[in-house]
Design goal:
By secondary structure, the chain is an alpha/beta fold. 38% of the residues lie in helices and 12% in strands. The chain has twelve helices and nine strands. Helix 2 links the parallel strand 2 and strand 3. The longest helix has 15 residues. The structure holds zinc ion. The site of zinc ion has 5 residues, from loops.
């Protein structure tokens, strides 16, 4: 069994991106899931204009999850500027509604606002008080990207981990996973740095200091961080086996899923224990999201 912590969809293929691709429809996702052996997948609504060329609401994700019973796990998503771009908007009221509808977490936050913007912190606070895990994307700067803005070394993420110690934060994106190493090389923070990982990266430090920090291994960024220096990756996965979660971030029908093969090979070659493999591929998700058996 595999549970995927990170997928996106649209109700119908609709508008293409400039590169000619569309998001995968639920039917296309199920086809990919059946092919690679993913039993259930979290669907993350896209609600912020920075994140995509077209948006998917929480309401649409809930409808899709009901239609494909047992295959999809709905997350809700709220842009921190929703309704009146105001600090007095009642986000708790919205979260309570979505939780009652079956949402198991919030994200992916793609709003291109500072990590410590008061509107973002208000959303963190409302999620923390409801024990709702949050998936976020890090943006390297304001403008020309998406995701919560943080600087090199992720100081604002650390501040959030200190201010909201019970909030389970699932880190994702290139600027998050680039911090597995102390230097980014030519690829830069928003790329896919290659080669051996020297000791002293910020992520190993943050993972050891903050038990509420989780790692979403989806997309090229998560896969790259675990595979660019395989010995480091295996060790990191063993060490943080309780807080790493398998994911793909399939956005288009043509997307590949190399992490499935990587983890499977690591298991069959004895590089990764079966205990760590099971936790990363489904047990952690099941526990974190308080899932009922499908
Ligand atoms: Zn995503």
């Amino acid at each position: 069994m595999i549970i995927d912590i990170h997928m996106h969809t649209v109700r119908a293929a609709g508008m293409r991106r400039a590169n000619g691709e569309t998001f995968a429809t639920p039917t296309q996702l199920v086809r990919i899931m059946d092919r690679v052996g993913i039993e259930r997948a979290v669907l993350l609504p896209m609600v912020s204009p920075e994140g995509s060329h077209c948006l998917t609401s929480t309401e649409e994700v809930l409808l899709i999850a009901r239609r494909y019973k047992g295959r999809f796990i709905p997350f809700c998503n709220i842009d921190p500027r929703i309704e009146m771009n105001s600090l007095s908007t009642d986000l708790g009221h919205m979260l309570d509604y979505y939780i009652a509808q079956g949402c198991k977490g919030l994200g992916e936050i793609t709003a291109n606002l500072p990590f410590d913007d008061p509107r973002v912190e208000k959303l963190f606070d409302a999620c923390q008080s409801r024990d709702l895990p949050v998936t976020f994307h890090v943006g390297p700067q304001e403008g020309d990207c998406y995701g919560l803005v943080d600087g090199p070394g992720l100081p604002r993420l650390e501040q959030a981990l200190m201010r909201f110690p019970k909030l389970k934060l699932l880190g994702h994106s290139q600027p998050f996973w680039a911090e597995i190493a102390p230097d980014y090389g030519e690829a830069g923070r928003n790329g896919y740095p290659k080669g051996p990982i020297k000791p002293g990266g910020r992520l190993p430090q943050l993972f050891s200091r903050y038990p509420s920090l989780y790692g979403d291994l989806s997309a090229g960024s998560g896969y790259n961080a675990m595979s660019r220096d395989p010995e480091f990756g295996y060790h990191f996965m063993e060490k943080y086996q309780d807080r790493l979660l398998f994911g793909t971030d399939i956005c288009a029908p043509s997307n590949d899923t190399p992490l499935v093969r990587y983890l499977h090979t690591a298991l069959s070659e004895g590089k990764l224990s079966s205990q760590a493999y099971e936790k990363i591929t489904w047990r952690n998700a099941s526990l974190l999201l308080k899932l009922e058996p499908a």
